[in-house]
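Record format v2
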Amino acid sequence: QVQLVESGGGLVKPGGSLRLSCAASGFTFSDSYMSWIRQAPGKGLQWVSYISRSGSAIYYADSVKGRFTISRDNAKNSLYLQMNSLRPEDTAVYSCARVSFDYYMDVWGKGTTVTVSS
Amino acid sequence: EIVMTQSPATLSESPGERATLSCRASQSVSSNLAWYQQKPGQAPRLLIYGASTRATGIPPRFSGSGSGTEFTLTISSLQSEDFAVYYCQQYNNWPPWTFGQGTKVEIK
């Protein structure tokens, strides 16, 4: 079945880095747009980043621009989020999502938890 | 950036009752509006896209309506599994994609 599984979260100190991964299965990953969305504790959903099928189009939320980098490896059916210069306000559950051809998020992973704290 | 505002923040209803959730956009998003359901510890699940089209496998008690700036999600008869948090999202003007702050539907 269609599935997205995130990994790579953990506890990191402010200013540190983490690389999140998202493993896709059950659909043609290379034909799919993808995004990262996060949810801070007790808060709502916040879109973080988007990447097109080939990686030629990439967008970031202003709050992470210049610090986070989205990428993908279509041969490995995997999506990534490199997070640098992490701040306490980046603490959240990070989920990857497939973006439909009409640009809503139609499949979501359960997420991986990132905690930024000293 | 389009701001999405949901009301109420919390809705207390009994099983079998009708629930009506509202979502307002700060500017027109046409019909490019999705609704998601999220239960504790679970990923959000797509319920509605195009403001009124149910996603695959979503029961007919869920219905969406509206266009422009005003939208409604209606659950015609609440089942125990429907008590959750519901989010609306616009995908008309992006980036960024923006979500409402959520409506929690709780058991009365």
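The mean pLDDT of chain B is 96.
DSSP finds no helices and eleven strands in chain B.
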